[in-house]
Amino acid sequence: MATIEEAQVSYLLGYTALTALIGMRLKPFHIPVGSELPCLTYKRIDTPRELTHSSSGASGDVITPRFQYDSWAKTELEAQAIATVLQGAMHMKKGSIGTAPYAKTVGLIRLDGGFPIYEAEIDVWRWVSQYVIGMVE
């Protein structure tokens, strides 16, 4: 079974508007040294769990993983443009994401905030976006 990370990567690398901006430069955690810009990085930053109940007892484990996506570019506007296209791909998405063998069904994905940061040490802009993914395990 595919992980939620694999499903997101598969889905986003198939999202034409995004790959038009970043190509295939979608990396876990951080930008590798010497990487070409613009690019996008991702990481899971939290995985809250809630046990749901019905009249017959426990009925499921609901998890809502939170992911951080960082859009990296030479200018603030370019980083923001990547974040905006990412929002078009992710915010309010539900159902199947990714392609076989990495497809996964998710509940509602929602944007949970975003903001720009200028990384002076490396002279690049980063737009941070956080998404919460509703899932039932």
Task: Walk me through what this model shows.
The chain is of the alpha+beta class. A 5-stranded mixed beta sheet has the order 1-2-5-9-8. Helix 2 packs antiparallel against helix 3. The longest helix has 15 residues, at 76-90. The chain contains 3 helices and 10 strands; from the N terminus they run ααβββββαβββββ. The chain has one domain: STM4215-like (2-Layer Sandwich). It has helices spanning 4-13, 16-22, 76-90, and strands spanning 26-28, 39-46, 49-54, 57-63, 66-73, 95-97, 104-106, 109-119, 124-133, 135-136.
Can you describe this structure in just a few lines?
With 137 residues, this protein is an alpha+beta fold.
Q: What distinguishing features does this structure have?
A:
about 140 residues, STM4215-like, alpha+beta, about 45% strand, five-stranded mixed beta sheet, three-stranded antiparallel beta sheet
Mind sketching the topology for me?
Layout: H1 4-13, H2 16-22, E1 26-28, E2 39-46, E3 49-54, E4 57-63, E5 66-73, H3 76-90, E6 95-97, E7 104-106, E8 109-119, E9 124-133, E10 135-136
Parallel strand pairs: 1-2
Antiparallel strand pairs: 2-5, 3-4, 4-10, 5-9, 6-7, 8-9
Helix pairs in contact: 2-3
Low-confidence segments, given as residue ranges, are: none
The largest beta-sheet arranges its strands as 1-2-5-9-8
Radius of gyration computed on alpha carbons = 16 Å
**Main beta sheet:** 5 strands, mixed
What structural class do you assign from the helix and strand content? alpha+beta
In CATH terms, what is the architecture?
A: 2-Layer Sandwich
